[in-house]
Amino acid sequence: MNEALHALETGARLGYLARAVVYFMIGTLALMAGLGYGGETEDPKDALRDLFRQPFGEVLVIAAAAGLAGYGLWRLLMAVRDPEHALYADEGRAQRIGRRLGYVGSGLANLSLAAFALSLQFPRLVPFGHGGSGDGTRDWTARLLRVPAGEWLVAGVGVVFLITAAVFAVRAWKAGFCKTLAPEAQRPLIVNLCRIGIGARAVVFALIGVFLIVAAWRADPREARGLGASLAALREQPAGEWLLAAVGAGLVAFAFFSLIEARWRRIRTQ
User: Fold this and answer.
1) For a tag site, which of 13, 149, 154, 238 has the least CB within 10 Å?
2) Residue 14: which of 269, 265, 262 has the closest Cα?
3) What's the rounded Cα separation, in Å, for the pair 29 and 200?
4) Is there a contact between 47 and 26 (Cβ–Cβ < 8 Å)?
5) Domain of 132?
6) What is the pLDDT, as a whole number, of residue 128?
7) Is 200 contained in some domain?
8) Tell me: the pLDDT tens digits for 28-62?
């Protein structure tokens, strides 16, 4: 059992490293696009596709899939066992349930992304990863809109994204993430960069949530946007290039935060 938990901890750290690579690529390209250097906005799947096209891309993508799978399993374990409950002793019952549901969502999302990464290398082995092109957010929004009360379901997902964005914003403002970091990482410069990164992720989640609510209101899946499309829409606003560049820089800072977590996060499995 201890060996399995140790392997899970290693997988979680590799997952943070994989997340750092993915968000560094997304943030760098968004920053370049905002500054007019020809970059394009991407979502995590696009970033994995680009990684796959690089030299030794097959190996890199398999390593990323292993890390994302380990991270996803660790988040699910956190949802079931809540090993960090002592860090949140002041939580109420609703907050505790919400945090656990967040772990479930994070775990499933990362396992899905791991399956997608594997599908790039093994399309026949992992056909459900959908390694091809397409807008996944619009696809599942369209499927939800076809079921009874689908507009309410899509709107509910959008509200969840907005709530998550608010949680990220509070976490960035209060530097609540420091509870889980070793003392070596709690230096002012590191903490402030992490706050910027988490704040940028809050902006992205808020944009996705708003677009989902608009899609529900208009019953039109074309209004829904994932991360990459939300960033592209940001560029269309007044002073959009500067806004996109700022968010892109923030996502690079989030990649830095992921590296910090890979090295200094206190990962508890029991």
Assistant:
1) 238
2) 262
3) 15
4) yes
5) 2-264
6) 54
7) yes
8) 999 999 998 877 788 898 899 999 988 888 999 99
Task: Determine the pLDDT at residue 131.
Answer: 47
pLDDT above 90: percentage of residues in the chain: 57
Q: Is the pLDDT of residue 167 over 50?
A: yes
Question: Model pTM greater than 0.85?
Answer: yes
Domain for residue 270, yes or no? no
229, part of any domain: yes
Domain count along the chain: 1
